[in-house]
Amino acid sequence: MHVPEADLRGAVKTALCELAEEMLGKRSCVGLVTVGSEEDSRGRSVGLRLAEYDVGLPDLLWYAGESDLPPQVWESCPTLVQDEWEAALLVSKLIVRVLESEPARVPDDAARHPERLPRPARAVAGESFCRALAAIAECSELHQDELAAQLRTALLDFASETPDNLEAAQHVAVSHAGEPEYAARMCLSRSGYSLAQVLLSVDGSPVPDAVLDAFPDLNQDEWNTLIQATGLTLLAFEAEPTRPPAG
Questions:
Q1: What distance in Å separates the CA atoms of residue 203 and residue 94, rounded to the nearest whole number?
Q2: Which of 41, 75, 187, 199 is the most exposed place for a label (fewest CB within 10 A)?
Q3: pTM
Q4: What ranges make up the beta strands (E) of the chain?
Q5: Is the dihedral of CA 58, 203, 69, 199 positive or negative?
Q6: pLDDT for residue 247
Q7: Are 79 and 95 in contact (CB under 8 A)?
Q8: Contact present, 101 and 46 (Cβ < 8 Å)
Q9: What gap in Å lies between CA 237 and CA 37, rounded to an integer?
Q10: What per-residue string of b and e applies to 163-198 under the rule 16 or more CB within 10 Å gives b?
């Protein structure tokens, strides 16, 4: 179903801001995120971008993946290691990327009628990846190991089996452990930290050198926006907590 880009932008920003207010309160700066389009050799796609800097969140996460584990993350994730940090950023990048629309050829009269641009059907690999993510949030009847296997397979089908992707996929698990109990979430298989927890713990850390080398004008608020928006997106794929059965 085609949704006008302006309507989509409003709906996404409203939902993201409401979640940010609930989880982050006055620290939230996700108002700097927008839904925007980018055109490359494959065509035009729509996804999450920084409003003023006009760069896609996946592109920023790609360069952030070259950075060292920020010291402040150890306060909330004291046993996290560098390999897990890199895996969390790579998987987060792929998740934000799969939520973008499929690239489409831009017709010659697009400038006159941008609201009428049709979107192509999502590719099978992208659709499977989205379903695997949704299965976690919907508190599926599947066992957590089955959910994790489904997620890893879909991730690699979408992203291809490069050495980095294969290693990152092995770090990904689905767990019902932690607080609140019985809430399924994407986590790191060794340390058990949820991906959302890892990303949100980076909020407020200095902009990594690798990111500044690629985007020299990026400021601290925009870096915080990237981290908050990505962490909240991951949080949206966690199951709602339920109370354990009595007795």
A1: 20
A2: 41
A3: 0.84
A4: 33-40, 43-50, 172-175, 185-188
A5: negative
A6: 45
A7: no
A8: yes
A9: 24
A10: eebeebbebbbbbeeeeeeebbbbbbbeeebbbbbb
- For 97, counting Cβ atoms within 10 Å of its Cβ (0-12 exposed, 13-18 middle, 19+ buried), the class is buried
Q: Among 37, 158, 34, which residue's Cα sits nearest to residue 95?
A: 158
Nearest-angstrom CA–CA distance, 163 and 84: 15
86 SS3 class: helix
Residues in the chain: 247
Do 90 and 125 form a contact (C-beta atoms < 8 A)? Answer: no
For residue 115, give the amino acid letter.
Answer: E
The DSSP bridge partners found for residue 43 are 40
DSSP 8-state secondary structure symbol assigned to residue 176: -
Query: Cβ(227)–Cβ(200) under 8 Å?
Result: yes
